[in-house]
Design brief:
This protein is mainly α and 150 residues long. It has 6 helices and no strands. It has helices at 2-33, 39-66, 68-75, 77-82, 84-113, 117-138. α1 runs antiparallel to α2, α1 packs antiparallel against α6 and α2 (39-66) runs antiparallel to α5. It starts with a helix and ends in a 12-residue tail after the last helix.
Amino acid sequence: MYSFVLGLHNLLRWVVILAALYLLFRTYSGLFGRRAFTAQDAAAGRWFTISLDVQVLIGLLLYFVLSPVTRAALANFGAAMSDSNLRFFAVEHSLMMVVAVILGHVGTAQVRKAADDRAKFVRSAIWYTLTILVILAAVPWGRSPLLPAF
């Protein structure tokens, strides 16, 4: 079960990244092209946020229920902090992803509240770019939760 859910979590990472790229394309092309903010632009933000929410729910299932990595880290938290791989998955990855979800939801609310099209694109550019930068920093590129740190 753990391997399946971890594989799904890894696969959905690409869904989130593709949704983010589409959203950023729409945001910056609208901002610099000075076009109207359309329902498609709003939908791109919603789909990105939804994909991020699904990814976090699966991550929480891994973190609190299925992962032997976090189970080991939580069993001896002091020792986990001295192991960079365990620390990454027990603290850094999860904390940064929670921050990313918060930024994404704040961005969605800020875009919705903006008074005009330009303000919507500006807010979208700021909040979603910050969200995506945090996500890219938190993705375990080349790390496996099953391998020791190098």
